[in-house]
């Protein structure tokens, strides 16, 4: 299950190929912020969509524009916030869980990678409160995904907890509806 991009730099970013991306950007620096015609993704959005930390670091070091949005009005931060374990990850966890708790350690590693990716994007001047076509911010998506380890990262950057999405829900409303009590406590404390 992958994505095919017309832009070679978006494809290299999605696949996590820093070497290929370096080669492409050396030839044509305008490819740094190129947007796909079909969905409007940039190399940075493609890398965040697929969780490629090394590529994200490389693109940010080269001053990729974190404010660019795709056709769904989503920034790279939206895609970091929307990331969940893939089906393959869940299968590996399930298969390896009985074997010396290897599945548990795999899951911890994936969570640490997610946190590192979030911290990397938040170290830029990304708009924390950007809303997509559904009116959701990154905080909305993190609350929907029960990513209680990522909520504090956004709150430290002063994410607005009062933004309502198109359904009239704030991140706190989502956490309450889904009964994510730990996140509810964090959001209430931030008020």
UniProtKB/TrEMBL annotation:
Keywords: ANK repeat, Membrane, Transmembrane, Transmembrane helix. InterPro entries: Ankyrin_rpt, Ankyrin_rpt-contain_sf, ANR22. Pfam families: Ank_2. ANK repeats lie at residues 39-71, 134-166. PROSITE patterns: ANK_REP_REGION (PS50297), ANK_REPEAT (PS50088). The chain crosses the membrane at residues 87-108. The keyword Cell membrane does not apply. This is Ankyrin repeat domain 22. It comes from Sparus aurata. The lineage of its organism: Eukaryota, Metazoa, Chordata, Craniata, Vertebrata.
